[in-house]
Amino acid sequence: MKEAYELISSISVNFPLFSYGTVASYGRVRLHVQGSYFRNDIRYYDLQLQLNEPMQGYPCIAQALIPQHLDIARFYNDIQRALRKSLESTYQQNHQQKPKKIFIEIHVFCRQLT
User: Fold this and answer.
1) Mapping DSSP to helix (H, G, I), strand (E, B) and coil, where does residue 88 land?
2) What is the SS3 assignment for 67?
3) What is the pTM of this model?
4) pLDDT tens digits for 42-61?
5) ∠ CA(27), CA(33), CA(71), 5° rounding?
């Protein structure tokens, strides 16, 4: 779905991802922050691509779970990649099932200098 890929590509450094509700739309697709929840003591925002048109079943076509304190300026490419991966899983399944939830987990590695 071209509109979904265009919307995913619009996520950039100054994108307002961490407000609830619809944060952007393009054609028949909207980017929606559905809410948040905890996993392994980390709060994640539930970022979904949803269809704007009436349909039977689940309107979500891609889903990524984003850590609350993620630096969008530094990791927006990872957000795009997670949404694309979830979107591709939905269409591989012919949109018969919910999309795969893709968690973004950022691990900080510290190198000890000697």
Assistant:
1) helix
2) strand
3) 0.80
4) 888 899 999 987 666 678 88
5) 110
